[in-house]
């Protein structure tokens, strides 16, 4: 559920479930708004403002500036100005281009752009266009300003050592803190320092050399540099893809080498198991050798076999053993000897 309403300063917004309020419209311009302080404008002290004021009498705080290249430093200063008091209405004055160029210098953003940037800051309740460079009592009375918020550093300009000196003497000045590390001058310095980079970028995005106020020679130089950068980017992409390809090849090679080592170990283990000192091939060879020796060697007679008709002192010689000491003198004698051996064998049987 959303309820359209206005806050204490008159800005339109939505009241969400749970009581939270969100803005839905930019801050109005001072010359177009109908939101005016209805209560009598009595002068407040800082102590009274910090204690709190009635709802229909917010403390009207004024902050002014150039607000060129609106950044976080500007927003933080406005946040501090808005939260100086419990019940406040923040008016922001923005100087015109003519006044700014006269007293400060050339701006990047036009006055219309700077006005619109301030309107969309959440801390701003009202924007005063074409604000004066030096605050006059008439201007303060016209906008019913209670206090002026600005950093406490003396701001020398328009022939004055401090344009807020009379505000401080009147007890209407409330200081804020600057945000270190960021300013409009810092941003412009970065742009000037990196001018070539931004010029080349905008040429690449379609801006003409005339729009960028770039000479013919510089335009050709920037376009050539853009082409060189493109070539470098292509080479870089090729190198990255090559590195990725080499990495994949190395991974696959590593896997192949690892698998080859595993297979090699397995092959060597199987070879040693078969042909090693205690391998299966040696055992099989020994078994076959033993069988062959058994097959070729003669069987010996058992010790318990009977020996009839033999003298115990002399063992009979086999029938094929020839007495080498007395060879037969003739064939006839050899035949007689063989016949007698055969007869002897018959007698033993």
TrEMBL record:
The keyword Lipid biosynthesis applies. It comes from the Eukaryota. The keyword Nucleotidyltransferase applies. It catalyses: phosphocholine + CTP + H(+) = CDP-choline + diphosphate. Keywords: Lipid biosynthesis, Lipid metabolism, Nucleotidyltransferase, Phospholipid biosynthesis, Phospholipid metabolism, Transferase. Residues 301-314, 331-342 have a biased composition (Low complexity). Its EC number is 2.7.7.15. Pfam families: CTP_transf_like. GO terms for molecular function: choline-phosphate cytidylyltransferase activity; phosphatidylcholine binding. Residues 295-349 are annotated as: Disordered. Pathway: Lipid metabolism; Phospholipid metabolism; phosphatidylcholine biosynthesis; phosphatidylcholine from phosphocholine: step 1/2. Residues 62-190 form the Cytidyltransferase-like domain. InterPro entries: CCT, Cyt_trans-like, Pcy1-like, Rossmann-like_a/b/a_fold. Catalyzes the key rate-limiting step in the CDP-choline pathway for phosphatidylcholine biosynthesis. Belongs to the cytidylyltransferase family. PANTHER family: CHOLINE-PHOSPHATE CYTIDYLYLTRANSFERASE B, CYTIDYLYLTRANSFERASE. This is choline-phosphate cytidylyltransferase. It comes from Zosterops lateralis melanops.
């Amino acid at each position: 559920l959303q309820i359209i309403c206005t806050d204490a300063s008159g800005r339109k917004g939505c009241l969400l479930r749970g009581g939270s309020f969100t803005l839905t419209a930019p801050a109005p311009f001072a010359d177009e708004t109908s939101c005016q302080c209805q209560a009598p404008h009595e002068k407040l002290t800082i102590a009274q403002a910090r204690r709190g004021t009635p709802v229909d009498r917010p403390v009207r705080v004024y902050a002014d500036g150039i607000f060129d290249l609106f950044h976080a430093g500007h927003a933080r200063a406005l946040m501090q100005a808005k939260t100086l008091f419990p019940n406040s209405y923040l008016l922001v004055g923005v100087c015109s281009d003519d006044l700014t160029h006269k007293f400060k210098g050339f701006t990047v953003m036009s006055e219309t752009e700077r006005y619109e940037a301030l309107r969309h800051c959440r801390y701003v309740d009202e924007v005063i266009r074409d604000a004066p460079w030096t605050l006059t009592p008439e201007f303060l009375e016209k906008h019913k300003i209670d206090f002026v918020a600005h950093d406490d550093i003396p701001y020398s300009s328009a022939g004055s050592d401090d344009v807020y000196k009379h505000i401080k003497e009147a007890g209407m000045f409330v200081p804020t803190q600057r945000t270190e590390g960021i300013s409009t001058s810092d941003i412009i310095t970065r742009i000037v320092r990196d001018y070539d980079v931004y010029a080349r970028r905008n040429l690449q995005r379609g801006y003409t050399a005339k729009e960028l106020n770039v000479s013919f020679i510089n335009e050709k130089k920037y376009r050539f540099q853009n082409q060189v950068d493109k070539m470098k980017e292509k080479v870089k992409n090729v190198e990255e893809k090559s590195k990725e390809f080499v990495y994949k090849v190395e991974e696959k090679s590593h896997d192949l080498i690892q698998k080859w080592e595993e297979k090699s170990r397995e092959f060597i283990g199987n070879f040693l198991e078969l042909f090693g000192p205690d391998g299966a091939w040696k055992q099989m060879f020994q078994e076959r050798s033993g069988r062959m020796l058994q097959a070729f060697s003669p069987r010996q007679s058992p010790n318990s076999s009977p020996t009839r008709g033999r003298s115990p002192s002399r063992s009979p010689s086999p029938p094929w053993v020839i007495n080498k000491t007395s060879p037969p003198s003739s064939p006839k004698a050899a035949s007689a000897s063989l016949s007698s051996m055969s007869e002897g064998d018959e007698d033993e049987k």
